[in-house]
Amino acid sequence: MSLPQDPPRSFFPFGNPFRMISPKGTKLSPKLVAVLGAFEETLEERLKKLIPKSKDEVVSLSWMTSAMQALCDSHNDIKTLMTDLKLPVTDWDEKWIDVYLDISLKLLDICNAFSSELSRLNQGQLLLRCTLHHIGSSSPDHLFRACSSLDGWRQHISSKNPRIEKCGSILDNNLVESSDIPKVKKSPEGTVLMQAIYGVKALTVFVCSVFVTAFSGSTKNLMDMDVADVYSWAPAFKGLQNLVNEEIRIRFSSGKFTVFNELEAIDLSVRELYPIVQGVVHTIEKESHAKTVERLGSVTENFSQGLDLLAKEVDGFFQVLLSGRDALLANLRSVTLGNDHILGAKSDAQVAN
């Protein structure tokens, strides 16, 4: 992974496209105020839970798994909110529908890229398992194979994933530029929906930018969002973003090849073991040698389990996005069929007259 020293950049260089989009003069009923308040309170609690208790949790696979869980739950909440608001698809602006479908499609692309990277990392840990298998023998042939496996791991882990490299442009050119979502026919229910989507989209872009940064090994895709203080969840969001982004930048500036805690632990163990399998360093104490091997086995197992859990959550987010698109398209088809039926009835009436 590379070590670029990219300066912090504002997420919104030309102003905040996530600005308040409530139509002027639109007043919410006490019921809608309560619905929106409950939604934003839940979002705030999720953001607070994602704030690491210590810098050591940034960026761990367990934290990334929790972040992906928060995305799944928040996007599911949007689907539930749409049902509770009883906002018919016929009230949706056609342009908004196009934007929604385009955004969800781009997020599906990002999920696929994340899945491919997790699969690539999983393949890398298989090389470490090969090393551990051969290191148990003192024969020169097995030590040679162990050394070869470590070389293969180093090359594999430092290589680039082209699909991850494309995620940065998706975040910049698609998700950000399409963030100024049109109003939903100035209805109070539409206002609530748009404000809820605003919060979920802010969380989505933040999490995706952190994932892309961690996977690519570069801070060029790390985004700093300027969220308006009018939202109750804004302080929690800013606290989370500032802590995570600052720690990531510190780690890269200190020369670390990765921000992953688990990968950093593996790298340290590999550096201790590599001279031994090369035969450059002859460990006199067998106990010391055994501890080095045991430590690599432990961090490799921890890495493997973390990858599996995160991969499941990424797949879960993919399914949530897919089901949301399917539900909207099904509603659109039912509306179209309904309109065709009405038009047909009118046509028959005209013929009868």
How many DSSP H or I helices? 9
Q: How would a textbook summarize the main sheet? A: none
Q: What is the N-to-C succession of helices and strands?
A: HHHHHHHHH
Which percent range fits the helix content? over 70%
Protein described:
The protein has one domain. It is elongated. 73% of the residues lie in helices and 0% in strands. The chain contains nine helices and no strands. The N terminus and C terminus are likely disordered.
Please summarize what this structure is.
The protein has 353 residues and is an all-alpha fold. 73% of the residues lie in helices and 0% in strands.
Summary tags:
mainly alpha, 0% strand, disordered C terminus
Topology:
Layout lengths: L29 H21 L10 H25 L8 H42 L4 H19 L3 H15 L11 H29 L17 H20 L7 H18 L7 H67 L1
Helix pairs in contact: 1-2, 1-6, 1-7, 2-6, 2-9, 3-4, 3-5, 3-9, 4-8, 5-6, 6-7, 8-9
